Amino acid sequence: MIAAVVVVVVIAGFCTSKGELVRSILYPKEMMFKFYEDAVKFVGVLACLATVGMVYSAATLIMKHVRSNSSSCNSISSRSSSRRAVAS
Questions:
Q1: pLDDT for the residue 36
Q2: Residues near 71 by Cβ (< 8 Å), separated by ≥ 6?
Q3: Cβ 53 vs Cβ 59: under 8 Å
Q4: Which of 19, 29, 39, 52 is the most exposed place for a label (fewest CB within 10 A)?
C-alpha cells in the first residue's frame, strides 16, 4: 500500500555537504590576502619617500633663494632644464 506524502519545508539546513556548498556560495567568508596587505604597505612606503623627496627639494630651493615661478617653469619645460644643464 502506497500513501501520498505531502511535505512542507520550514527551514533548509546547512548540515549536509550540499548545504555547506550552498552556504559557502551564498555567504562567503571574508578573505584578506597577504599580497593586498603587502601592496598597501608598499604604496605607503613610496608615498612617504615621495613626501621626503618633495620636502627636501622645497628646502633646497628655499635655501638657494630660487623664485617659485622659475622653478615651476623649469620643472615643466624639459628644454630649459637640458639647456641649463649643458650651459653649466
A1: 87
A2: 61
A3: no
A4: 29
Q: Where are the domains of the chain?
A: 31-87
User: Three-state SS across the chain?
Assistant: CCCCCCCCCCCCCCCCHHHHHHHHHHCCCCCCCHHHHHHHHHHHHHHHHHHHHHHHHHHHHHHCCCCHHHHHHHHHCHHHHHHHHHHC
Pick from 33, 32, 12: nearest CA to 23 = 12
Distance CA 19, CA 55 (A): 58
Q: Dump pLDDT digits (tens) for 61-84.
A: 888 887 766 656 566 555 554 555
Contact yes or no for 39/33 (Cβ under 8 A):
no
- Single pTM value for the model: 0.46
60 within 8 A of 70, measured Cβ to Cβ: no
